[in-house]
Specification:
CATH class of the largest domain: Alpha Beta
Number of strands: 11
Number of helices: 15
Strand order of the largest sheet: 2-8-1-9-10-11
Largest sheet: 6 strands, mixed
Helix content: 40-55%
CATH architecture of the largest domain: 3-Layer(aba) Sandwich
Shape: globular
CATH topology of the largest domain: Rossmann fold
Structural class: alpha/beta
Strand content: 15-25%
Mean pLDDT: 95
Low-confidence stretches: none
Order of helices and strands: EHEEHHHEHHHEEHHEHEHEEHHEHH
Radius of gyration: 19 Å
Length: 300
């Protein structure tokens, strides 16, 4: 099994999904059994409403990116396994803040991620059985601080094996550190047994969604608008090991922490692509042929 890790050089809009779907379709067209993996993700009820409606119709929670990756690769395992951790965010219920005369608080909280969190789902595979753990932001649900769909949240709770009410950012962070390794590794192990190649798409500009997972990657691609950079996987892992030995938690590492020390060995231009063409994966594969071909050459 060969794994390709695609990470973003910036927290938002780096183009990870464009590159990941093109690679996945390219490998599929070569006859490979391709798996796709989005270890951690977050999406917004308001700004990604179509994917929210898809989740609501199924009573489940998974991200928009995994839907695209699944279509590109024709990998149809449960999206909750391919995307073991997903957080649903939402926008503020501005009317609530105004009625309570908390305008100043609204602007202070706007930049805080936890203030926008509605729920987060973890999938853990234990002896072939799927276990779902749902974290709910108690403050937002009880305080009517964000726009949300209560019926959907209740359905998610009913479909979960365990529901945990969050009261603070520190508690959320602590639970992530506790649950994430088991969630990510148990789901990835399932893919590892089923597919020849796995395309792993990172979360924002995070470098190591899981320390053990990163130790398995064979090809490392960093992306930003207009460019795809290939890094030596051995040097990439060695740097993470070094930073870890200096006390840095690999899960906290961002692109900025590593790209300053790593030299890419190959660079490819990424042209602007019209939005309507981004889900025509065969055409996307053709437009990004040099990148796809370079990945293929690395698998031989």
């Amino acid at each position: 099994m060969t794994s390709i890790f695609v990470f973003g050089l910036f927290p938002e809009d780096s183009g990870k999904t464009v590159i990941s779907t093109a690679i996945a379709r390219g490998l599929l067209n070569e006859g490979s059994r391709v798996g796709v993996f989005k270890p951690r993700s977050g999406h917004n009820l308001w700004y990604q409403y179509e994917s929210f409606l898809k989740c609501k119709s199924e009573g489940r929670l998974f991200c928009e990116d995994i839907m695209k990756l699944m279509e590109a690769s024709r990998c149809y395992l449960s999206p909750e396994i391919l995307n073991p951790i997903d957080a649903l965010m939402s926008v503020f219920n501005v009317e609530t803040f105004l009625k309570r005369r908390r305008v100043g608080q609204m602007y202070i909280l706007e930049s805080e991620v936890f203030s926008h969190l509605v729920v987060e789902r973890y999938t853990i595979l234990e002896d072939g059985e799927v276990r779902r753990i749902l974290l709910i932001n108690e403050r937002n649900l009880k305080g009517d601080l964000t726009l949300l769909d209560s019926d959907y949240i209740e359905r998610l709770e009913a479909n979960s094996d365990q529901v945990i009410a969050l009261k603070s950012l520190n508690e959320w962070s602590s639970l992530y550190r506790s649950l994430a390794p088991t969630s990510i590794r148990s789901c990835y192990d399932t893919l590892n047994k089923k597919f020849e190649d796995i395309v792993i798409e990172g979360y924002n500009d995070a470098i190591a969604p899981d320390f053990q997972l990163i130790r398995d990657v064979d090809i490392v691609v960093g992306v930003a608008p207009g460019v795809a950079l290939f890094y030596d996987s051995g040097e990439f892992k060695k740097l993470i090991d070094t930073l870890r030995s200096l006390g840095r938690d690999p899960a906290s590492l961002r692109a900025e922490d590593v790209v300053r020390y790593l030299k890419y060995y190959e660079v490819f231009k990424v042209p602007p692509i019209p939005r309507e063409r981004l889900t025509d994966y065969d055409e996307l594969c053709r437009r990004l042929k040099t990148i796809v071909d370079h990945v293929k050459s690395g698998l031989k």
